[in-house]
Design a protein that fits this description.
With about 290 residues, this protein is α/β, with parallel strands linked by helices. Helices cover about 45% and strands about 20% of the residues. The protein contains eleven helices and seven strands. Strands 3-2-1-4-5-7-6 form a seven-stranded mixed sheet.
């Protein structure tokens, strides 16, 4: 989760695919099956309830038609793809990931849930999925967009996939403002920690997301700041990592465990200092193409 694809230690792979394959099993022990941030109500301390709340909040914002066709871009281990199928009675859900580990986990999950006829997974680049154009009611992105740079290419793929009237819903960590060269120099140690822990990412501001969506022909319908309610996630992750320490260390080593805890510290501080935050965005594909003004 670096701000602009920052550097990382040479001994720890931060390529998104290799990084994800490496940490999936260990992070499941820490984050749980949902594998994303939580949305905490006041006084809430249960990570599982909070992550479920974030998923449900995104679903409420998605509001697809009955029995939709859904693409989950950056589908993780398939938990949400299966949940979306049941939540919306979808006729088809396709999870897309570059991670062979994630795709295999998703296929096992959908088969175990009896959903393999409607929930499938493909190993592909979410910026060029190869899926049919113009037929999907909902494109869903949970915390994958920061790895899908350049942002305009990601938004163009969302627009290509969506049927007219379809919606993209996206939840992710974002920059609260562009970082200057001075910012990067001052924070380079922390950014290296984030790169080593979470893999190299290219975070952007909500303005950059909005501009990319509009340039792709999408209409941004809502943009919500969830930062304050997401912030408690990092303390929960840190506590879970410490409790599961020996099991996590067996999978990613003691340095990997220490690095994860250090990454939580940095994320917590960056949220508190208003360097980064968490945004929920929805954008619709118009029923008719926008007309060019002459």
């Amino acid at each position: 989760m670096t701000n602009a694809g920052g550097s990382s230690g040479a001994d720890v792979p931060t390529d998104p695919i290799r990084h994800y394959d490496r940490i999936t099993a260990a992070w499941t022990l820490i984050l749980g099956e949902d594998f994303h941030h939580g949305l905490f109500a006041p006084g809430e301390t249960d990570l599982q309830r909070a992550t479920a709340c974030l998923t449900e909040t995104m679903a409420a914002a998605a509001s697809p038609p009955a029995h939709p066709r859904i693409v989950d871009l950056g589908c993780g281990t398939g938990t949400q793809a299966c949940w979306l199928s049941e939540r919306f009675g979808a006729v088809q859900v396709v999870g897309v990931s570059t991670s062979a580990v994630g795709v295999a986990a998703g296929r096992r999950r959908s088969q175990a849930a009896g959903l393999s006829a409607t929930v499938t997974f493909v190993e592909a680049d979410a910026r060029d999925s190869g899926l049919a154009a113009g037929v999907w009611d909902l494109v869903w992105l949970t915390e994958s967009s920061q790895y899908l740079a350049p942002r305009p290419a990601m938004m163009r793929e969302c627009a290509r996939l969506l049927a007219p009237g379809g919606r993209m819903v996206l939840g992710d960590v974002v920059l609260t403002h562009p970082l200057t060269l001075r910012d990067l120099r001052r924070r380079h140690v922390d950014l290296d920690v984030l790169g080593d822990t979470f893999g190299d990412a290219v975070m952007g501001t909500t303005e950059e997301y909005t501009q990319a969506a509009q340039a792709a022909g999408l209409t941004v319908t809502a943009l919500t700041d969830l930062s304050a309610r997401v912030l408690p996630t990092f303390g929960q992750w840190r506590d879970h990592a410490r409790r599961a320490g020996p099991s996590v260390s067996n999978l990613i080593g003691e340095e990997g465990l220490a690095g994860f805890i250090a990454g939580c510290d940095v994320m917590e501080r960056f949220f508190a200092e208003d360097v980064i935050g968490y945004a929920l965005m929805t954008a619709d594909k118009p029923w008719e193409p926008a007309r060019m003004l002459t």
